[in-house]
Design brief:
Mean pLDDT: 90
CATH class of the largest domain: Mainly Beta
Helix content: 40-55%
Radius of gyration: 20 Å
Structural class: alpha+beta
CATH topology of the largest domain: PH-domain like
Distance between the termini: 17 Å
Strand order of the largest sheet: 1-2-3-4
Number of domains: 2
Number of strands: 8
Largest sheet: 4 strands, antiparallel
Oligomer: single chain
Length: about 150
């Protein structure tokens, strides 16, 4: 039986991260082009840009809510283990990660992608993580989808 996806997003870096990566590749390509010739510079720029773009894509986690699981990157959480879902802003995330934070939290934060997040508390005492804290561009949609899916 296939999982029906109720919400999905990939936490790609913001435009300025892509621009900084492009600038880095361009600097290296110009340096190699000046030292070894323009063909080497162009090849370095194209190959380096492709590799860096692929790395930025591959390392960007996917957040998804299906009819059976919450998925954050490669981690999966059955919906039956979820007790409560709360949207959190940047200040709340800083408080949850600051001094006195619970080191047992499952954390998947990407501050260069988005400022908000979701805190999911778990009802399973056997789980080593009492809660999941993860980034989302649309934490309200994640919370609404989880609430609707858990209510089914």
């Amino acid at each position: 039986m296939a999982n029906r996806v109720g919400y999905s997003e990939r936490l790609l870096p913001r435009w300025w991260v892509w621009l900084a990566a492009l600038g880095l590749v361009a600097m290296i390509a110009v340096a190699y082009g000046a030292a070894l010739g323009s063909l080497v510079g162009w090849i370095t720029g194209i190959v380096g840009g492709a590799i860096l773009g692929a790395l930025l894509w591959v390392t960007s986690p996917r957040v998804a809510v299906t009819d059976q699981h919450l998925e954050v990157g490669p981690a999966r959480l059955p919906l039956g283990c979820i007790d409560d879902v709360t949207q959190v802003d940047g200040a709340a995330i800083a408080a949850l990660r600051g001094p006195g934070a619970d080191a047992r939290l499952f954390v998947a934060l990407r501050p260069w992608s988005c400022r908000g997040g979701v805190l999911v508390t778990l009802s399973d005492e056997r789980d080593p993580h009492p809660a999941w804290l993860f980034s989302s561009r649309h934490p309200e949609r994640v919370a609404e989808t989880l609430a609707a899916t858990m209510g089914d």
